[in-house]
What we know:
Helices cover 24% and strands 27% of the residues. The protein is α+β, with helices and mostly antiparallel strands.
Amino acid sequence: MTSPRLRSDFIARAILRQSAQDGRSAMLLRKGDPDAGSILVLLLERDGSTVVLSQTRTAEGEAAWLRASGETPLTPEETASYIERQTRFDPDLWVLELEAPGFRPPFEATLV
């Protein structure tokens, strides 16, 4: 059974709120479609390198996150280019940036 799909604005606000609870930086960089826009989460390390997480579903249909940027962290320039390409493909895209030492998501996340 698949979990219900929540509105994108609700998910984005929840991630930002949960991530900022311990005083870490959590910012909305791009606001997408409130109902059905996909969400990218940028996990930012102190040196400026980034790992990009993208929404996905598990084989069972549960909400999860995929390391969309691959195994190697991106530089700030590579991150900007990645976001530009993705927004050209999906103009309804949300982009969140979260301070994340060790690239650990500061919110409840199932990684696949």
